[in-house]
From TrEMBL:
This is Acetylornithine aminotransferase. It comes from the Bacteria. Pathway: Amino-acid biosynthesis; L-arginine biosynthesis; N(2)-acetyl-L-ornithine from L-glutamate: step 4/4. The modification N6-(pyridoxal phosphate)lysine is found at K254. One of its GO terms (molecular function) is transaminase activity. May also have succinyldiaminopimelate aminotransferase activity, thus carrying out the corresponding step in lysine biosynthesis. PROSITE patterns: AA_TRANSFER_CLASS_3 (PS00600).
Length: 404
């Protein structure tokens, strides 16, 4: 085993330079706290970007992983396995879904959703019904197809030509969708109930209700990308349940494995029928280890007291950040739902979100950014109130120093 010392400098020597990680290297986590190589402790409000929904080293997840690791790891989809079937049944029982496809990441789940939508349009109408409507500033993944459907040109730069038949409307603007949708050509409309990467912007209820009606009227499928908003993040198991608008396809990842790579595409039996044998696949999708861990995540997060706790913690964290924002005139609003919050910087501090992130690290608290103008928070759904209080104290110290 290679036991050479590991430093941040090694990243620049051996890794492709598409990331710019911070200087600290975490080596251990427990609950909502993380320790780096030097033993420095941080309170984690990043949650691995809305992934570590039950915090670090959760005993239930460790138990599920160890128990399955001693049985069977991998089979491929030439055969099925018990954890995958149990997890699929749980997802169907807890949601609108009747059929599930497993993958390994949000991008893969979305890729499957978009392929299914096109295949369904092709099968039921013809090849001309292939167009997808998405939204400006949306984020759906990094594959060529998903990055094209996403509405941020910077992620597509240098990777053209992009797949065709994709249009971008304005988020929360139904009229802009009406101008683009077509009964003959539109196979699907895809939307994040809460736009995460572009600044934590929730959809208006009337907007999602209007999309559902437009899709019904134009024989198009409605796809909800719940990669970031799903698995209890909003205080509901999935955000569509909060809005009362049911999609035809829903994608889930991030929190689904609590840190173990797993994703799912959920849909109805009627729509699922278009992905017949051989039309799509994934070597690791439905992996027994991943599904065993995800089962434990869902069994835990779906408990009413956990979901209720998310709302209480969200109120606590939101109020604390709003108070800091008022005291130092740094936030114009704190928006979002549940424990997916965006603290919007005031005019004076616009473009400086990274400075707040770095100042937070100096004080021992880890936050995220969503664009240059928004501090994003996506901590563990079970973060203790004492950790929230301490995180707020540390973040206030960071803001005080930054604004001095």
């Amino acid at each position: 085993m290679n036991k050479e010392p590991v430093s941040r400098e090694l990243f620049d020597e051996v890794m492709v330079p598409n990331y710019a990680p911070g200087s600290i290297i975490p080596v251990r986590g427990e609950g909502s706290r993380i320790w780096d190589q030097d033993g420095r402790e941080f309170i984690d409000l990043q949650g691995g970007i809305a992934v570590s929904c039950l915090g670090h080293s959760h005993p239930g997840l460790i138990g599920a992983l160890m128990e399955q690791a001693e049985k069977i790891w991998h089979l491929s989809n030439v055969m099925t396995n018990e954890p995958a079937l149990r997890l699929a049944k749980t997802l169907c029982d807890l949601t609108f879904a009747e059929r599930v496809f497993f993958a390994n990441s949000g991008g893969e789940a979305n890729e499957a959703a978009f392929k299914l939508a096109r295949r369904y349009g092709w099968e039921h109408t013809g090849p001309e019904k292939h167009e997808i409507i998405s939204f400006k500033n949306a984020f759906h993944g990094r594959t060529l197809f998903t990055v094209s459907v996403g509405g941020q040109a910077k992620y597509l730069e240098g990777f053209e030509p992009a797949p065709g038949g994709i249009h971008h409307a304005d988020f929360n603007d139904l009229e802009s969708v009406k101008k683009l949708i077509s009964k003959a050509k539109t196979c699907a409309v895809v939307v994040e109930p809460i736009q995460g990467e572009s600044g934590v912007v929730p959809a208006d209820p009337e907007f999602l209700e209007g999309l559902r009606k437009l899709c019904d009227d134009n024989n198009a499928l409605l796809i909800f990308d719940e990669v970031q908003s799903g698995v209890g993040r909003t205080g509901h198991l999935y955000a569509y349940q909060m809005y009362g608008v049911v999609p035809d396809i829903l994608t889930s990842a991030k929190g689904l494995g609590g840190g173990f790579p797993v994703a799912a595409m959920l849909t109805t039996a009627k729509v699922a029928a278009s992905l017949g044998i051989g039309t799509h696949g994934s070597t690791y999708g439905g992996n027994a280890l991943a599904c065993a861990v995800a089962q434990k995540v869902l069994d835990t997060v779906s408990q009413p007291e956990i979901l209720k706790g998310v709302k209480a913690r969200a109120d606590h964290l939101r109020k604390g950040m709003m108070d800091i924002g008022k005291r130092y005139d740094v936030f114009s609003e704190v928006r979002g739902e549940g424990l997916l919050l965006g603290c919007v910087l005031t005019e004076k501090w616009k473009g400086k979100a990274k400075e707040f992130l770095n100042a937070g690290l100096d004080e021992g608290v880890m936050v995220l950014i969503a664009g240059a103008d928004v501090i994003r928070l996506a901590p563990s759904l079970i973060i203790p109130d004492t950790d929230i209080d301490e995180a707020l104290e540390r973040f206030e110290a960071a803001v005080k120093r930054l604004t001095a």
